[in-house]
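Sample intake — Prephenate dehydrogenase
Collected from: Streptomyces blastmyceticus
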Amino acid sequence: MRTALVIGTGLIGTSVALALQSRGVQVHLSDHDPDRARTAAAIGAGTDEEPDGRVDLAVVAVPPAHVAATLAEAIRGGRARGYLDVASVKGGPRRDLEALGCDLTGYLGTHPMAGRERSGPLAGTADLFEGRPWVLTPTRETDTEVLNLALELVSLCRAVPVVMDADAHDRAVALVSHTPQLVSSMVAARLRDADETAVRLCGQGIRDVTRIAASNPEMWLDILSANPGPVAEILSAVAADLDETVRALRALDSGDKDDREGGAAGIEDVLRRGNAGRSRVPGKHGAAPTAYETVAVLIGDQPGELARIFADAGRAGVNIEDVRIEHATGQQAGLIQLMVEPRAVPGLVEALTDRGWSIRQ
């Protein structure tokens, strides 16, 4: 691949362009808003000038509702050797293209499983896709050259290719992406009118649950409008769990012993099913989840503190598998939670204590 055309210079399109440019591909940028394309070009994502002729690959990075029309225009204009889109739903756009009578041999639907709460070209980064799954949905009609171009794109973006059926993909992302977005937003919505005293008690748990609720509503309306059926099915199952949980909680408040025992059993059931589901989430580097131990350390909010604690852990020969920071409300300090292999805990605690760190059990 020597040349590419990226149509749509939001977060994903600009990030694709930045990754390709950094690896020697000449990228041309196009957007319905010329200012966005100029902004992407200004940060090094390519040029907003039209290509002289046909490019090797056209990447359509527009909202799902506009994918088919944008692709159809590009295909009919013969703008590239191969065409793909990066929308978060796959079945609908392909069916729309078929209805428009397009030749789909040169098209492949894809979806990089990466994103941020921010949007727009200035949110783009060349490393957005590194190590992340990138779904490819080829069919029997897909030309081998287009599949190879898509695999080359994934490689240049340093992502991991995953081949799936388009409709299976849409059901999967409804479960692991679209429904969590709505549930996160619903929980965060409870905070909007909450008493200020309650909000001040927010800790890491509520921050984790509501992190993605900061996402752009217009963008998510586009995504959910393109995949409403599968999301509704999963939310219906979640709603059934909520109804059962509400009944169990009411029973816990009952004066009847049998009711309380039944309520406790219902709550325990949903919590244990949650444990089982959480244990299936892939761990580090996509491997099976590993049970790490947590070493909590008091850390000041000053420049260089994170570098110092990581360096001290490194000198102790301990690899930090994961890390979280829990900020203390109203204080210039917080707890850093270092996740390590269980056998590494004693040595890490001893080393950090010797270097003056305050370990919190």
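Post-analysis note: The chain has three domains: 3-164, 170-278, 293-360.
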